[in-house]
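Students often ask what a 'structure token' actually looks like in practice. Rather than answer in the abstract, let us consider Integral membrane sensor protein, a protein of 247 residues. Its sequence is given first.
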Amino acid sequence: MPLDQAIQCVHDPLLVILSYVVSVLGSFTALQLAIAIPGSTGAARWRAITAAGIAMGGGAIWAMHFIAMLACRMNVEVTYDLPVTLGSAVIAVVSCMAGLAIAGSGVFNWGKLIVGGVLMGLGVTGMHYAGMAAMVMPADTVYNSSLLVASGAIAVVASIVALWLAFNLRGWGQMLGSALVMGVAVCGMHYTGMLAASFIPDKSAAAAGGVSGGYLGVGIFVVTTALLAAVLTISLLRQRQRAMVRI
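Now compare that with the structural description of the same chain:
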């Protein structure tokens, strides 16, 4: 069937806004948590890497992605295969942890930054397209190869920038500004990837099973925001306690 007969995706403005907000909050939280990585060793270092990786991969990237996926309204039933969806979240978290571990090891330099950023960016791209593959619907997904490559390039550049920011910025003002920019970059990658996709009707591929629901996107936003806020609060309290001990 020609691409001009593809099913149209109309984005819900509320969920688009919420996807950006959760990406900014996740980025800010990850930047705060990453402060502890360079100065830590052993188990403490891996705890910091894990916490920052979950905030970035799970909050700033995956939660943003899934909320934005749910923002895509089509005139066919769409559900999401749960194991594949959860698998895409694992890809995002593991790739962010790997990038943070590589870029944050030893003395910071551009070589480690680029290797970590490329690895993290490829993981983010894999997460996005695994999440797209989780869509269960009476349609086939066809990709524009140029836009697909562009989305991957955006992910790699955004990851390199994120890692540089994580290990070179301090101070609330700088981190908040950086988180706002990171939110734009993460959303830019996602919506470029969505633009690359065309959904061609296929009645033989009936939508069945999976998770869906009109309030699922808002629910994920509320839960993710609450978790990120709790983690951020605990992190800031610990930083204050450490500062008081030094005094």
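One point worth highlighting: The beta strands are 10-11, 72-73, 79-80, 135-136, 139-143, 197-201. Ask yourself how you might have guessed this from the sequence alone, and why that guess would often be unreliable.
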